[in-house]
């Protein structure tokens, strides 16, 4: 099982929302940007919530900037086979407290999926965060409409 390093932070200076994944997928790591796998519904969820296009990487960056959303992952590095969160082992967490200190405008932390949430609760139990369902296609129990409704509860409050 190989050790992988996650992607860096996406920040804009006055972000109010931090969305934390577990760690980038193989495809995201190869492309160098969060949620790059075409079957992951993350960008589709944001596009529907905010009624903005996501056709290009620039569109995706713009939707985050327009709505003061930062992205990062709970895992700085880990061992993982493929992209499945279920195979994540030996987590080295990102320093979320330092991130929050450097970005004091963050008001809401949303965890994208169970591994992200459990890593936060185990590593930083003092930090409040919201557990949302994973936008991964592997989480087929949640339709796109249901994901939009759930994430919209936390992302629509602008």
Give a description of the structure.
This protein has 158 residues and is of the alpha/beta class. The protein has a single domain, classed as Uracil-DNA glycosylase-like domain (Uracil-DNA Glycosylase, subunit E). The chain is 34% helix and 20% strand. It contains 6 helices and 7 strands; from the N terminus they run E-E-H-H-H-E-E-E-H-E-H-E-H. The strands form 2 sheets. It has a 4-stranded parallel β-sheet. It has a 3-stranded antiparallel β-sheet with strand order 1-4-5, with helices on one face. Helix 5 links the parallel strand 6 and strand 7. The protein is globular, with a radius of gyration of 14 Å. The model has no long low-confidence stretch (mean pLDDT 92).
What's the helix and strand layout?
Layout: E1 3-5, E2 17-21, H1 26-31, H2 42-50, H3 57-66, E3 69-73, E4 75-79, E5 89-93, H4 96-102, E6 108-112, H5 114-123, E7 130-132, H6 144-155
Parallel strand pairs: 2-3, 2-6, 6-7
Antiparallel strand pairs: 1-4, 4-5
Domain Uracil-DNA glycosylase-like: 14-151
InterPro entries: Hypoxan-DNA_Glyclase, Uracil-DNA_glycosylase-like, Uracil-DNA_glycosylase-like_sf
GO molecular function, one term: DNA-deoxyinosine glycosylase activity
